[in-house]
# Entry
Amino acid sequence: MTSNSFDVEKIRKDFPVFSRELPDGRPLVYLDSGNSSQKPNQVIETMREHLALHYSNVGRAMHVLGAESTDAFEGARDKVAGFIGAPSRDEVIFTKNASEALNLLAYSFGNPANTDPRFTIGPGDEIVISEMEHHSNIVPWQLLAQRTGATLKWFGVTDEGRLDYDPDVISERTKIVSIAHQSNVLGTVNPVAAVAARAHEVGALIALDASQSVPHHPVDVSALGADFVAFTGHKMVGPSGIGVLWGRAGLLEAMPPFLGGGEMIEAVWMDRSTYAPIPHKFEAGTPPIVEAIGLGAAVDYLAEIGLDAIEAHERTLTAYALEALREVPGLRVIGPETLEQRGGTVSFTLEGIHPHDVGQILDDRFGVAVRVGHHCARPLHLRFGIPATTRASFYLYTTTGEIDALVRGLHHVQKVFA
# Structure
């Protein structure tokens, strides 16, 4: 489907949640896809059918159901690999979410079981992140610094909500750089190619939290220049409980297992074990089988519509929203106010009104679902001197009419607090 033929009303019919009414007959206006996306029938029915007719454990059972389940599970890995341009399916590691993927990666640094010099880290070495990161891309690196004595450094954020990129922050002592591909608060798309080039220039590795980019834009991991990319299924019309860590094969092969148990082993003796090749080395125990299959269905759904078309639709929505929100007096957008290098997430404050009050009235009176709080990015809010923001985030099923409903609701909020 091309951007010229993008039919948002047809797409909305795939999502059963949009057929329901809220209490008092209010329609649902869902502007919280940056938090978690809604699910189309194609994903729901794929998961239901597998649970009903094909379910078995994977990689173990020598019977029809076991073969069907294994084929569907590994087929989902193939779909994800193709979707992100991975050179090899074996580079796709299934995790329970992006947080686990980033923790898996951080666990490999400074681990005595990993003697590869690329992962050796200690006092005097550096870890670089940014001030705009989700907590999932801050806390694992804080823990690594505490565990190893390494120094945690970060890029700042400009007043306009852009990455304050100073290449000198990455030094000869830097071992890993981990930043968001797209901010979950600001919508900012970061200059990852330049950051990756600088990291590799000094011999460092680079990871991307792509949870907010993979669902919305074409992403080719081979072209990004990154060594690792983490993202999650529930933000890309897939189920929760399934995420992905992509990594370059040579790096994944050097990393020790994150968890021990069944399926991740090659052979076990009472005093030692050897481990399965990637990707299974990192997938201990019974995996999220049906969730992975649901993610595969989500990939099929997004690929059929086309990420180029989705990106173009969201770009139109973002331009419309930024213009419409200018009509609201006392509203301050936190983040870029132009379309340059930004996605469909708009966070803002209303003068004199706490975001929690904004969100509650929008929901109670207008059925408008937005996110309020610090969005698991408290350091970013501290940088802007605000306790919280209201965030509206768009996706392939969002309409301009829903943005109009948001603006009407904000005017009403202001009247309530006048």
Q: What stands out?
A: The chain is about 35% helix and 15% strand.
